[in-house]
Amino acid sequence: MTVGTAGPMEGVKFGYGLDLSRCVGCRRCVYACAEENNQSRKNPQIHWIRVLEMDKARGVDVNHSDIYYDAAEVPRPGHFYMPVQCQQCRDPPCVKTCPVGATWKEKDGIVAIDYDWCIGCRCCMAACPYGARHFNWAEPDLPAAEMNPKTHVLGNRPRPKGVVEKCTFCIQRTREALSRLRGDLSRGRPEVREPAGPGKRDPPGHGMTKRVFILKEELATHPSFFYFYAT
Amino acid sequence: MPFLLFLRGCLRIITQGDRAYRIWVGSLLALIVVGLVSYSFQARYGLISTNLRDQVSWAFYVGNFTFLVGIAAAAVLLVIPAYVYDWEPIKEVVILGELLAVSAIIMCLLFVLVDMGRPDRFLHIMPFLGSPNFPMSVMAWDALVLNIYLGVNLVVVGHILYKGFYGQHYNKKIVIPLVLFSIPMAVSIHTVTAFLYNGMASRPYWNASILAPRFIASAFCSGPAVLLVLFQVLRKRTGLPIKDEAIQKVAELMAYTMFLNLFLLGAELFKEYYSATEHLVYTQYFWAGIGTHRALVPYAWGGLACSVISFFIFLVPTWRRNMVLLNIGCALIYTGVYIEKGLGLVIPGMTPDTLGEIYEYRPTSWSGASPPASTASVSWSSPCW
User: Fold this and answer.
1) Model-level pTM?
2) Looking at the partner chain, which of A64, A100, A131 has a beta carbon nearest the beta carbon of B130?
3) Is the ipTM of this complex over 0.95?
């Protein structure tokens, strides 16, 4: 097992784009995430991604969504699917509320947790508007054979009972992948595209996104997680 | 060592008593044992044994904590007329209010401790020893003000008891400034606790600026309810000279604060139901239920009935002078406010959760009830001094 400690890189900020028009609600990302990030398999089963099934007629409306739909029957007509995970907010309410400073925002935008400092008071879970934080209600169940040995100290290393965990944008992978781009960075910035922002269209030719929105925009958490419809 | 002698004297006093006293203390000790056994299960298997889940991640522990901060803050209701207006009949009972505050704060801190996933790391929140997240985290502030309030009341009560033990009069130069200091402290502990909820935009049910005033109003009727019963018990059993005048004055003040409490509740309900935005759903869950999820509805209406009936009992002078009615009123107020703040604040705030899922919280029988019972008993024994 390796525990990486790669830090944030100068001039890099992570963002996440998710194409709602392509998501069929199969929940495979949920299970792939749990395998990659060493979540507890059962009692409690911890998932960092929750996929919400919603009515096309209602649009995005979490109070009429369902996460317990049958994945064998997707996509159901008249419905669309919306995966929700940590939005790595620019102004994260969870960080503000933590009484001991066990969670903070890294320079590259990732909200990190120190599992060795968390007291398990769950203020951050109450403060998070996205249900992104999960608590180890019991000793995590992670069979040795299923453990992903490649870990990061702020990410998928195994957690003890009684602390909070959440999505880290796969910090153990993304920071490393980015450092491979170091060469490109030194030759000049690689092609970094930013969405035009909620409700706006990118200039013609820019190409990445059409209708972009962020979840619960009115709360001014400023997520680094952008939903869009490419088609 | 006079101090050791004092401690030994206290121990002798609290271990002696007649049959009724021994039964009372014995049953409290039994509850503490039940709680300790239950907590040992929770410590071994984790908080999963409380039925708390990611959807409803706070419930009775935090609710009880909140309610008891109110009880602790209410000691001030006695202090204000006694010292600010120099109203003699209440002065002798102020110490009981402060004793109650000490017990309530100890219970609060214990509830927070049993709710923590990693209680072994509690030092992380202490100034100098840990890394409290000042000034941003309201929880860090709450821990600070609660501990200061506990310290102030311990010093006052300890000093008065110590001097009383040696038959001396307490030192006014120490007691009065501290008692006066405890007035703003009492308001601040409950305000900060309200802000803990109030500041969370993720939970619209809590994110209302009326919350802190409601907390103060409900605290100022539930805290004295305990004291009024305690006054009568002590008057009967120890001959402590507590005048009817003092009891009636406190009862009258409780009628006013209960009116304010009900008015603020009405203001909140009007705003939610009339504007009927998507934020209504939490209020609806508590008062009407959502579909088949109606577990809290009987409590909501039962609690409201308790508060309204007790308001009238305390309002009408002839009724509140009737000691039987007065004690019924105290029990009703305590129940009504507990339901409003212990049960009706935390759970509906998280039902449905932030992504719209409804997990209807029900505590497990042994873990949901026992540790609260035991933490409660831990400190209920202290007013027996």
Assistant:
1) 0.92
2) A100
3) no
